[in-house]
Prior knowledge:
Blueprint: H1 3-54, H2 65-82
Amino acid sequence: MDPILTLIAVLGALNLVVLAVLGLWIRVHLDNSLLELDEKLALAIKSIVDRMMEGGLGDFEPPNPIQGAIAQLIQGMAAQKMNTFDATVMSRGDDGKFESPVKEFQ
Length: 106
């Protein structure tokens, strides 16, 4: 076999081995980073929940009843607007048929 082809084959195999090791190293590093991030987030959420339960987040002004009523009114109007659609009223002729046909259904 030609020594150059052998060298190319060996370098190709070495390249695959290096890529596999690099991929494994990246995966292990990424897994460890995600676990560390998960632990830090869990501690942050736990501390916030603990402070909320103890009342240590500060004094909050209770909601104003009028503001609550206005918020409910706005929510109701938004819900009603979402459940409606635009309609066009068309006039009918003496025979009971529409005077001008609807272009969408032709």
